[in-house]
Each structure stands twice: as C-alpha cells, then as structure tokens.
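INTERNAL AUDIT FORM
Audit reference: QA-55
Scope: verify that the stored structure record matches its stored sequence.
Auditor: D.O.
Record contents follow.
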Amino acid sequence: MTAVEIKNLYFKYDKEWILEDINFSLKDKEFMAIIGPNGGGKTTLLKILLGFLTPNKGEIKLYGKTPKENRKIIGYVPQHTNFSLDLPITVFDIVLQGRLKKGKFFYNQKDKQKAKETLEYLKIDNLQNKKIKDLSGGQRQKVLIARSLVSEPKILMMDEPTSAIDPTGQKEILDLIENFEVTRIVVSHDIKILLRDVDKIAYIHKKAVIHEGPKLNIPKDRHFCEVELIDFLKDESCGI
C-alpha cells in the first residue's frame, strides 16, 4: 500500500522557488529520513506534507487523499516544545491532548486508557504526574511523541526530534522511532540518523535526490561520529 505519493511538486514564497519538481513515494510503515542544508526546503516540504502549506504545482497524496483531507491520520512531533513550560500541566494532561479532534472538547474513559497505554509503551508512565517544566529535554521529547502516538496515526512526522538532547537521549529517541509500526518521516540535521534502518533518504536542496537506505550494519551501542560515517559511505553513489 502506498502511504505517500508526491508528483512534480513545486512551491515558492513570493517569486522564489523553494522546492522544484519533487517526486517520491513511500510505502505503508516505511521510514524516510529527510536531510539537507539549512534553507534547502526540508521544513517547507514537511509543512506541505502536514497540510500547513499548499504547493503551487504538483500533487501530494497520503493514503490516496490530500494532507488536508487526511489530517486525522497524521501524528506530528514539532522541533520545539509548543506550550509554555510555566503552565502547571502534567505529562498525562499533555498526552491526553492528542485525543482531541475537531468537534471534540472532552475526554472519555477510552481516551484516558489510551493515554495510559501509550505512556507505558514508551516507558515513561512513571512521569505521568510530573510537571512538564521538571523534565529533561529527552523526557519532554518522549512526551511529545506520546501525544502524537495516542491519536493512533498512520503516519508520524517529526521535525528534528533529537535536537538539543544529550547523546544518551538521542539514542533513546532514535531507538523508539526505528521500531514504531507506522509510516515515519523524520527531518534531521544529524546525519547519524543514517545509521538507523531507514528505508529511504531524501536529500532536499530545492530539488530532491532520493536514496535507498544504506544497510550499514554498524553497532548502535557505541559512539559513531560523522567523520566515521562519511568514511563508511565514501563508496556509496548518489546516482547524480
């Protein structure tokens, strides 16, 4: 089953083209990493996939419908905490927010049970009564992931999920993402995401170069820096 299909997509701000002739597809439950330089169009592409922006040309479908038509199947994890840390709100309350949808303003018992199960699944149920301001960066990121997963999405989209997190927290987040049984699209500046079992890589710099995920078989339980990774990939051809 095709999860994502993009054909001849173009997008511009004012008169400047940000994305040109983007084409790729993603199957159900595949994992795609989107990489590229600052200003290359990665975040713009993610916003189009989320339905926040509309392309000037081309077609984009998520499970056969436009992002706006199919927004309810999308789970989104933003780069930064999108609520005030001064709010006296608990982890459980934040995760419950993921069960709200258009026309629904109250939680039922099923919502609360799903929130509990999601916290347990991510092994952060011990944090459910803590205030969000009292958590570490990695813990907050797991809470945002839980809030997205509790809505039972078919596609999970994440913007820099490991930024501003210590190496141990980065590994924990990537371990989780790698094993989720949903379609995953992750924008990242950290090329160590290529160490993971990604199915496709989109290098975005106005245009897109699509790679199959390299099967590197590199141990994930030790430090592996960018220099080593570049050396490991030196014989890989990008096809251009």
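Auditor finding: record pair retrieved intact. The CA atoms of residues 50 and 67 lie 6 Å apart.
Action required: none
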